[in-house]
Amino acid sequence: VQLVESGGGLVQVGGSLRLPCATFGRTSTSAMGWFRPVEGKEREFAAAISYNGAKTYYADFVKGRFTISRDSAKNGIALQMNSLKPENTAVYYCAASESGSLPDPCPYEYDYWGQGTQVTVSS
Predict the structure, then answer these.
(1) For 44, 60, 84, 123, which has the most beta carbons within 10 A of its beta carbon?
(2) pLDDT number for residue 38
(3) DSSP assignment string, 24-84
(4) Strand 117-122 relative to strand 17-24, pairing
């Protein structure tokens, strides 16, 4: 199973980006999420979604600004990032569970990871 992120880039404060994540190597769906590395933690949770898109879960720092959704065409997900702030600058990683169905903020619940896509917000 391979996850491929795209959509990262350089954007000004207050701008928007959309990060798609495509899944290759399987047709089944499972819970998926977005994480970023931060000092002192292995990976910090940003957002997650259930296998069918019915449930979502967000970290406090993205609530009201980021939206996670499923992309059935790519058997993957996407993260719409609005009202971006400089502190949102990071590499964002897409993750997928092998068989879990519900969104989970713990990175250890995910079995597959993408290579990451860089988001840079300039002030």
Answers:
(1) 84
(2) 87
(3) ES------EEEEEEETTEEEEEEEEE-TTSS-EEE-TTTTTTEEEEEEGGGTEEEEEE-S-
(4) unpaired
pLDDT at 39: 85
**pLDDT tens across 31-70, in order?**
999 999 988 778 999 999 999 999 999 999 999 999 999 9
Separation of CA 20 from chain center? 8
Quote the CA–CA distance of 84 and 65 in Å, as a whole number: 8
Residue 12: Cβ-neighbour burial (10 angstroms; 0-12, 13-18, 19+):
exposed
CB neighbours of 53 closer than 8 A, spacing ≥ 6?
A: 69, 70
Q: Is the dihedral of CA 6, 108, 98, 67 positive or negative?
A: negative
